[in-house]
Structure formats: C-alpha cells, structure tokens
Amino acid sequence: MTEQLAIMEEAARRAGELMREASQRKIRIDAKEGHANFVTEVDRKVQDLLFSFLSERIPKAHFLGEEEGKDVFSERDTEGLTFVIDPIDGTSNFMKGYFPSVTSIGLLRDGVPYLGVVYNPWSGQLFSAEAGKGAFENGIPIHTDTAPLSESLVAMGTGPYYPGLPDIAFSLAADYITRCIDIRRSGSAAWDLCMVASGRTGMYFEPKIQLWDYCAGALIAQEAGGRVTDFDGAPLSFRGPSSVVAASSGIAGEGGYLPRTAR
User: Fold this and answer.
1) Global confidence as pTM
2) Is the pLDDT confidence value at 37 over 70?
3) What is the pLDDT of residues 85-119, one digit of tens each?
C-alpha cells in the first residue's frame, strides 16, 4: 500500500467517526438546486475535516468536493494530484437514518484515476484501490462476479435531481428486471460501484452522476475486474458528470448489457 492510500484510508475513517457521532443528534438540513437535493451541516463538516487532514499530509494536491462551491472541475485538475471528494454520498439516507451513506475519496494523477477509497462507517467496510494493483475490502482482495446477467442483482440510481432522468432510469429498470434476478436501489452511487466490485451485485447503472459520486468507486470496480463506462460504452472522462454503467466480468463478458434506449 502506498503512503498516500494509507493517508486516505485514515481520513475516511475519521470522517466516519464524525458521521457516527453526528447521527446521534438533530442535524440542520438545507436544500440545494434540484428536486430532493439536500446538504446537511455534517456534509460540510466532514468535507472540511477531509480537506484539512489531507492537505496537511499531501500539501501539493488540489481539491474538488461536492459542498461549499468547490465543485467545478478546471484545467488545473488535469495536472498533478487532485482529490475528488464526496463527504457523504447518500445524504438523504444519512438524514433519515436509512443506510448506507459513505465517504468517497478519489485521487486523480494528471487527470487519471490513481487511488480510491470508499468507507461505510455503519458497517465498517472500507473499499480501496490503486491503479494497476487491484481492489480490496478491509485489506482483502475483491473481484467482481462471474455470473451472467440472468443470475445477478442489478443496482440502479434514479437521478432525482435532474428533470426527465427518473423516467429514463425506471424505463431501463423495467427492461433489466426481466433479464436479471431483481433490481436494487441503495441511494449511494459510490456504494453501488463497490457492490459491483465485491461481487454482491452484477451491475449498476444511473443516467447522470457527478464526478465526486463515481471517481473512487469507478476505480475500485475497474480494479476488481469490472467494466465501467458511460451508457454508450465509452470510457468515463473523469472531468465531470456522466451516465455510468458498471458491469461485472461475467456480465461484461457475455455482452448486450449496456442500457437500451428508454421507451
């Protein structure tokens, strides 16, 4: 394990401690742009903790995070190291005590995914990956499932913040549910990508998610042997929002899994 990955894992655990402590008291909630799009005071505090902890230990890195106006990818983020952080992925879950909600920390090197950490403080599961060196759950190597789509669970995201996208997502779900075991919806894209990586689900799709939602999880899924692309099958740009579909080695190997045009 690189020193940088160890630092990121420690940062994620500290964020998890803050989340667990905050869940025991009343939390201030604010609305953001888009339907059912919320931010809590804990999201901001976790992001501040992560920025502070990581900047002290890796001072040359840039930072891109979901909260507090630090969410615009720029040309400088294609040079050197850039942390891409979602302090709480699954804020609506966190607000309601309906888990999972996770901390996601991705690290780009010259604009390319390099390291990724996703931590679920409620279960203690820490997923991590380094480009070219595999993926891990609590230090144990993980791999995607080898089963075909017909023998797999499929996870989905609905894109509730974006008008029209839920219609597309549910239309696709109606198609997939006839081709797989069943559909699941966790409310956290980073978590869904890790479920594909660890072989618990065979596939995940969502019409549009932000860079901080997929940066770490996409690398983890890829390093576990999965294929992660946009809906057209093109590689993710890691520059901003994108449609995302992650498939296990079994599903990617049989082909024909990319989302069909919504009816």
Assistant:
1) 0.92
2) no
3) 999 999 889 888 888 999 999 999 999 999 999 99
Residue 97 CB neighbours (<10 A): 9
**SS3 state at 112:** strand
Average pLDDT over residues 7-16: 97
- Give yes or no for a contact between 193 and 157, defined as CB atoms under 8 angstroms apart: no
Strand order in the sheet with 227-229: 182-184, 153-156, 203-209, 242-247, 227-229
Phi-psi region of 136 (alpha: psi -120 to 50; beta: other; left: phi over 0): beta
Cα angle at 35 between 163 and 46, to 5 degrees? 125
182-216 burial code (b ≥16 CB/10 A, e <16): ebeebbbbbbbbbbbbbbbbbbbbbbbbbbbbbbb
Residue type for 87, please? P
CA dist 216 and 204 (Å) reads 15
Q: Write out the two tokens for 174.
A: 């109606």
State the DSSP string of 59-111: TT-EEEESSTT-----GGGGSSEEEEEEEEETHHHHHHT-S--EEEEEEEETT
Name residue 24's amino acid: Q
- Provide the pLDDT confidence category of residue 150 given band limits of 50, 70 and 90: very high
The answer to whether 189 touches 102, Cβ cutoff 8 Å, is no
**5: amino acid identity, one letter:** L
When pLDDT is cut at 50, 70 and 90, the band that residue 263 belongs to is very low
